[in-house]
C-alpha cells in the first residue's frame, strides 16, 4: 500500500501550536490560507472562512475506502476537519467533506503486514480509517486533532459523543458473506454493508432496516444486528411503560391526599437562594473570544 505525502504546516510542539492558533485567528495570513483552500475546491465546496476559524494544518492521508485505499487531501481547522478528492495536487480538489470536530473520536490502529501508521476517525455519521506515511506523522496528526477537540469541548462545555457509526469492512476482505458464511460474492451476487456493525453481507442476510442513532431514517442492517437491536428496543419500551405506570400511580396517590402542599411550597420559597453571577467568568469568556 502506498501512503500519502505529509505536508503538515505547523510546528512540532503542542505549546507552540496553541500559541500560534490564538495569534492566527485574525491574521491576514490565516485568512489567505483559508481562501486558498476555498479556491482549490471551487464552486463545489462550502465557504470555510468565518470569524474565529483557524487553519491548523493540511496534508495528504490515505483513506481506506470501500473498494481500496485512496489518497485524500485533509485540512485540519480548529473546529472542523475537511477532506476531498485530489484532482490536481495542491491546486484542485472536489467532493468536499466537512466533519465537526466535536463529533470526532480517534482510535489508533496496530500496524499489520499490509497497513502501517493508521488510526480510526469515528463520528456519529461516518467512521473510517486513515494512514500516514510515517509513525511520527501519525503522532503529530493525532496530537493536533485531539488538541483541537479538547479546546472545543472545554470552551463549549459539551461532552464527547459515545455514539459512533460503524467502520465498514472493505469489500476486498470479504469474498463470502460474513453473516451466513455461505454465500459467495460474484458479479451478480453483490455485497452489502450492515450499517450497524460494518460487516459485508449478502442480500438475504440483510433484508431489514432499523432506525440507528446515527441516522434520520431506517438503515440496512444484517439479521444478527436486527435481532439484537430489536431486543434492546423492546426492553427499553417495557422499561418506559413501567416507569409511566408508576408515575401515574404516584400522581393518583398525591391527588387523593387531603393536603394541597401549600405550606411546604411557602417554606421552600422562604429558603430559596438568590442566583449568583460572577463577573470574572464573563470577563474570562470575553477574553477567550478575543
Model description:
- It holds the Pfam family FYVE.
- The chain has 290 residues and is of the alpha+beta class.
- Helices cover 35% and strands 21% of the residues.
- It is built from six helices and eleven strands.
- It has a seven-stranded antiparallel sheet with strand order 4-3-2-1-7-6-5. The protein has a two-stranded antiparallel ribbon with strand order 8-9.
- The longest helix is centred in the last third of the chain and has 34 residues.
- The radius of gyration is 26 Å and the shape is globular.
- The N terminus is likely disordered.
Set down the secondary structure blueprint.
Blueprint (H helix, E strand, L loop, with lengths): L13 H11 L3 H14 L13 E10 L4 E9 L2 E9 L3 E9 L4 E4 L9 E5 L4 E5 L3 H22 L35 E2 L6 E2 L6 E3 L8 E3 L1 H34 L5 H9 L8 H11 L1
Antiparallel strand pairs: 1-2, 1-7, 2-3, 3-4, 5-6, 6-7, 8-9, 10-11
GO biological process, one term: endosome organization
GO cellular component, one term: early endosome
GO molecular function: phosphatidylinositol binding; zinc ion binding
Amino acid at each position: 500500500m502506498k501512503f500519502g505525502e505529509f505536508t503538515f504546516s505547523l510546528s512540532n510542539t503542542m505549546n507552540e501550536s496553541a500559541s500560534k492558533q490564538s495569534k492566527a485567528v485574525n491574521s491576514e495570513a490565516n485568512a489567505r490560507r483559508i481562501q486558498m483552500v476555498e479556491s482549490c475546491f471551487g464552486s463545489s465546496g462550502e465557504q470555510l472562512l468565518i470569524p474565529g476559524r483557524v487553519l491548523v494544518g493540511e496534508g495528504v492521508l490515505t483513506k481506506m475506502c470501500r473498494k481500496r485505499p485512496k489518497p485524500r487531501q485533509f485540512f485540519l481547522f480548529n473546529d472542523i476537519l475537511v477532506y476531498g478528492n485530489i484532482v490536481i495536487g495542491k491546486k484542485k480538489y472536489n467532493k468536499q467533506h466537512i466533519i465537526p470536530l466535536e463529533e470526532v473520536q480517534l482510535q489508533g490502529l496496530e500496524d499489520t503486514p499490509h497497513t502501517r501508521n493508521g488510526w480510526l476517525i469515528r463520528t456519529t455519521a461516518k467512521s473510517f480509517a486513515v494512514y500516514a506515511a510515517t509513525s511520527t506523522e501519525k503522532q503529530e496528526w493525532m496530537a493536533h486533532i485531539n488538541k483541537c477537540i479538547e479546546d472545543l469541548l472545554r470552551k463549549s462545555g459539551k461532552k464527547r459523543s459515545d455514539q459512533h457509526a460503524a467502520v465498514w469492512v472493505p469489500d476486498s476482505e470479504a469474498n463470502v458473506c460474513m453473516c451466513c458464511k455461505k454465500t459467495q460474492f460474484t458479479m451478480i451476487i453483490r455485497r452489502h454493508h450492515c450499517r450497524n456493525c460494518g460487516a459485508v453481507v449478502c442480500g438475504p442476510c440483510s433484508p431489514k432496516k432499523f432506525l440507528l442513532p446515527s441516522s434520520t431514517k431506517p438503515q440496512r442492517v444484517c439479521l444478527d444486528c436486527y435481532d439484537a437491536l430489536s431486543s434492546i428496543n423492546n426492553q427499553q419500551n417495557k422499561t418506559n411503560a413501567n416507569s409511566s405506570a408508576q408515575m401515574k400511580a404516584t400522581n393518583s396517590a398525591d391527588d387523593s391526599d387531603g393536603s394541597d402542599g401549600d405550606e411546604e411550597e411557602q417554606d421552600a420559597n422562604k429558603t430559596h437562594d438568590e442566583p449568583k453571577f460572577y463577573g470574572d467568568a464573563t470577563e474570562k469568556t470575553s477574553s477567550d473570544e478575543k
